[in-house]
Amino acid sequence: MTLNIPQLTAVAAAVPWLACVMVYPRVLSILVVLLSLIQLNWFARYFGAPAIFSRISLVVAGLLGIRLIIDFSFKKEYFAKKWLILAPVLWLACFFLVLTVCSNLFNGESLLLGLYDLRYYFFGLVICFSLYFYFEDLLSITFFKQTMIWIGLLQVPFSIIEWIVAKGGRVLTLDAVTGTFSGYGELVACQLLVICIVLYEEMTTKKKLLGMNNYLLCLIFVIPIILSKSRTATAYVILGLCFTWFLGSLQKKSFVLVLKQTIPICLLGIAVFVLLYQFFWKPNYDVNRQFNLSYAFRYYMREPMMDYENYLEGSDPVMGRGRAVVKAIHIISEHPINLIIGYGSGATAEASFLGINGLYYQKFGTLAGLGRNQYSKTIAEFGLLGMGGFIFFFATLYCRIKNFYMHKPEIKNIFILLLFSLVLLSVYAFTLTSFFFSFTLAFFLATVQADFDRINTITER
Predict the structure, then answer these.
(1) What proportions of the chain, in percent to the nearest 5, are helix, strand and coil?
(2) Which of 50, 84, 320, 345 has the most CB atoms lying inside 10 A of its own CB?
(3) How far is CA 110 from each of CA 63, 101, 102, 347, rounded to the nearest angstrom?
(4) Coil, strand, or helix at residue 391?
C-alpha cells in the first residue's frame, strides 16, 4: 500500500504528539487498549477513512514497547520477582521469534513478512507487560470480569448502529455488523466469553453483576450475535451455556443445588435459541436446509471455488473452515521438515500494507482460504512445532495456576472459560492473531501475575 501526500502529512503531524505521550506510559497504555478494542478500520468501512487508520493501534503499541524496554532496563527490582506467569509469556515470544527466522529462511519466505505477521503476538506481549508494569495496583480478577462485561455491553449499541447503517446488513459487506471490532469473529468471541463469565458468576456466587439479573444480562449480550448474521455463533452460544453449567456444577457439593440451577439455565438456553431462531434464522435462511447436518458438514468441508465467473458474481471462493485445517495438515505432510516447522510465518497471509503476499496465499485458486482460521494458519505456517509450542504454553500456565490457586478456584476456572472460548473460536476465525484475544489473554495473565505478587508479598511479611 502506497501512502499519498495527505496520509504522509497526517503521520508526520501525529508523530510528535505520540512522542509526547510516551512520557506518560499509563496514558499511552490506555490509548493502545482503546485502539485495540475500538478498531479504527470501522471508520474506513463506513465513512471512507484511509485504510492506514487500522494500523495506528500497532504504531502506538510499538511506541509503548519502546517505553517498556526503557523502563525495564532501569527497574532492576522486577528481576528479583518470581514471574509465575510472565516467564512463560517471554519464553513463547522468544520461541516464535526463533521459529519464524528458521522457518522463513528455510522456505525462502519473506522474513519481513514473517516478522510483520507476528504483530498480534507482540501486541499481546506489549499489553501484558504494560498492564503489569503501569497498572499493577488496579489489577484484580474482579476488575478483569467487570471490564470484560463492559466491553461486551459496548458491543450492543455499536452493533445496532452498524445494523441500521448497513440497512440490516444488506449493504456494504456481508458481515456488516462487527461491533467495535474489525471482524464479526472477534465480536462472537467477545460475546461468548462474557456470557460464560456472567453465567459462571451466577452459578458460583449468585452475585448480580452490574446490579441486574445475570440471566437478563446474558440475553442482552446475545443481541450483537443476532445482528451479526453469524450462523455458527448459535451453536457456540449453546455450547458455551452447557460448558459453563458443567464447570459451575463441579463447584457444587449438593446434587439438589445443581438441579436448582439447571432449570433456569435450560430456560436461558431455550430463550436464546428462540431469539436466534425468530430474529435471525427464520428471516434470513432456509431453516430446513441450514439445520441439516449433512449440509453443515458440506459447508465446513467445501472445496475452494474454481469458477472465476462465479467469483466475479460475488460467490465466496475460499474453502470451508474444516477443509482448511485438513488441507493445512496435508501440505505440511508433503515434506518432513515442513511437517515440523511449517512453511513460515506469513506464508498464508496477504500483507497489503507491505505489498507482499505469502507464498501460500492465493486470492483465488486451489489453496484459497488456507489461512482461514487459527488452526489452519498455525499448522500451515509453523507446523507441529508451532502447534506444540502453543499447547505447551497453555498447559504450563494451567498447571501453574492450578497448583498455586488451589485455595482460589475462581481464577483457574476463569482461565478454563477463556481457553474454552479460544479453542472453540479457533476453528471459526483468527483468535491468537486478533486484537481481542491478544488483549484479553494479556489482560488476564497480567492480572494473575499481579495477584501472585500480592500474595507473595503478604506471605513474606
Answers:
(1) 70, 0, 25
(2) 345
(3) 24, 10, 12, 8
(4) helix
Grid cell at residue 48: 471512507
Three-state DSSP class for 304?
A: coil
How do 356-357 and 350-351 pair as beta strands?
antiparallel
Q: Cα Rg for the chain, rounded, in angstroms?
A: 22
**Cell numbers representing residue 239 in the block:** 455450547
Indicate the DSSP class of residue 81.
S
Distance, first Cα to last Cα, the chain: 57
Which residue type does 120 have? Y
Mark the ranges of the chain whose per-residue pLDDT is less than 70: 1-21, 40-54, 76-81, 168-175, 253-255, 281-292, 306-316, 352-353, 363-366, 458-461
Q: Is 357 helix (H, G, I), strand (E, B) or coil?
A: strand
Cβ neighbour number for residue 109 with a 10 Å cutoff: 24
Which residues on adjacent β-strands are paired with residue 350?
357
Which of 166, 121, 155, 162 is CA-nearest to residue 437?
121
Write the pLDDT tens digit of every residue in 271-295. 887 877 777 766 666 666 666 677 7
**Of residues 317, 305, 48, 39, the one with CA closest to residue 185:** 39
Q: How far apart are CA 127 and CA 442, in angstroms?
A: 6
Alpha-helical regions (H) of 250-320: 255-276, 282-284, 287-290, 293-300, 308-312
pLDDT of residue 2: 47
Cβ-based neighbours of 456, under 8 Å, separated by 6 or more: 82
Instruction: Determine how many CB atoms are found less than 10 A away from the CB of residue 260.
Output: 11
Q: Report the C-alpha gap between 94 and 104 in whole angstroms.
A: 15
CB 411 within 8 A of CB 141: yes
Give the model confidence (pLDDT) of 91-102 as tens digits. Answer: 999 999 999 999
